[in-house]
Specification:
By secondary structure, the chain is an alpha/beta fold. 40% of the residues lie in helices and 25% in strands. Helix 12 (290-296) links the parallel strand 13 (280-284) and strand 14 (305-310).
Length: 416
């Protein structure tokens, strides 16, 4: 059994990927699942439906990886040439496989509106020297080759077909063949530091990490994810060591750490609301309903989300949320007094337990010397208290909306 690091290369085939007609989601899903099982990704490559390109890419991949996984290019039409190209590469011929045809017939028996035609039957032609794995949800079989101790697998590009093949057949077979070392990831999310400032803050801690634990910085809209990746043969020793390093990090960063898992901020807040049995409402001006959108993307959000008022105009702030016209005139819409009244107003109006409100200048115009573009006031309110803060995010409209949404959700987390 191979106890060294087992490297995998993924090759996606299809002109539609390279011209941007579809987005390659297969590789991301495959990489995640392989990584969970201790396999290391050497490279991800996308190529044309072209024989020379396929062969060149396979030669290069076999020079740096133990396993090469193809997706795409094995449909029944003339532009799908992966099967024929692999047969040529492995110096073999295509032969008819009755078991593949039986599998196709079984699939079509459940689809009365589809008739078996010559193109479907052609899927039963497979390279003679491969191991055939039946596709339980599609007509194109999975083919498994071996060469000088390395494994090459060709799978459909249709995502649900690929996922079924990977989960039920390919990964289990790879696990039996290779004894991949345990690979563990731990994510710590930090708020309130830029990437560079955080790197300076934790420099000594980072230098003290064991050689088998690697650190990656993943910044995203004001939050920096620190991902610790460790690899050892002893899973218990690895878990102990990673947890020990996380404890040291917690002593350094304290409340700047907002999560000890790779979870989105909306999901984190949603889970807290659900666990406490609380309902939230939002009053949004500059974020235009984006906070509500992010929360309602979560399945089951009706358990914690009450509703939203998008109070973009001052008329709505006054007429619906009962914001004082005097405050609007004296302090302006982007102010502490207005955003606090918005939060309190929507909480009372929608009878929620907690609320959050935003008012700001998203840009690119509308700023002043006193309140430049990117100035945002955010308030959160409960029955006991209302707190508010001013932020200055920057000059880009979309970025300001995203950052304000993130900051609002994190302030909501604080009040919970």
């Amino acid at each position: 059994m191979n106890t060294n690091r087992v490297k995998v290369e993924i090759i996606t085939i299809g002109d539609e990927i390279l011209i941007g007609q579809i987005v390659d989601t297969n590789s991301a899903w495959m990489a995640t699942e392989l990584n969970k099982c201790g396999f290391e990704l050497a490279q991800i490559t996308s190529i044309h439906d072209d024989e020379r390109h396929i062969i060149e890419s396979l030669d290069l991949a076999l020079g740096r990886a133990d396993i090469v996984l193809f997706t795409g290019g094995i449909g029944p039409t003339n532009d799908d040439i992966t099967k024929q190209t692999l047969a040529k590469y492995f110096d073999t011929r295509l032969v008819f496989d009755e078991s593949v045809l039986d599998n196709i017939k079984q699939l079509f028996s459940n689809r009365p509106n589809y008739g078996l035609n010559d193109l479907n039957r052609s899927q039963a032609m497979v390279p003679e020297n491969c191991t055939v794995i039946q596709n339980k949800v599609g007509t194109a079989p999975i083919t498994w080759f071996e060469k000088v101790g390395k494994v090459i697998v060709s799978m459909p590009g249709v995502p649900y077909e690929m996922k079924q093949a990977m989960s039920s057949e390919v990964i289990p077979r790879l696990q039996r063949r290779y004894n991949a070392p345990v690979l563990m990831h731990k994510t710590v999310q930090v708020y309130g530091y830029s990437e560079s400032a955080l790197a300076i803050k934790i420099a000594d801690w980072e230098k003290g990490l064991p050689a088998y634990i690697h650190l990656a910085y993943l910044p995203n809209s004001g939050v920096v994810k620190l991902r610790l990746s460790g690899q050892l043969d002893d899973v218990l020793a690895l878990q102990f060591s990673v947890n020990q390093q996380v404890d040291k990090l917690a002593q350094l960063l304290g409340k700047a750490i907002i999560a000890y898992e790779d979870i989105s901020i909306p999901n984190l807040v949603g889970s807290l609301l659900k666990s406490k049995g609380l309902m939230v409402a939002t009053a949004e001006s500059c974020t235009g309903g984006n906070i509500a959108h992010e929360l309602t993307l979560i399945p089951g959000s009706s358990e914690f989300f009450k509703g939203s008022v998008v109070a973009y105009s001052n008329d709505i702030k006054i007429g619906v949320l009962r914001v004082s016209s005097t405050d609007l005139e004296n302090d302006g819409a982007v102010s502490r007094s207005v955003v606090e009244h918005m939060a309190e107003g929507v909480r009372k109006l929608l009878r929620s337990d907690v609320s959050v409100a935003t008012s700001g200048i998203a840009g690119p115009s509308g700023g002043t010397a006193e309140k430049p573009v990117g100035t945002v006031w955010i308030a959160v309110s409960s029955e006991d208290k209302t707190i508010s803060r001013q932020f200055k995010f920057g000059s880009l409209r979309e970025q300001n909306i995203i950052r304000a949404t993130q900051a609002a959700l994190l302030m909501l987390k604080e009040i919970l």
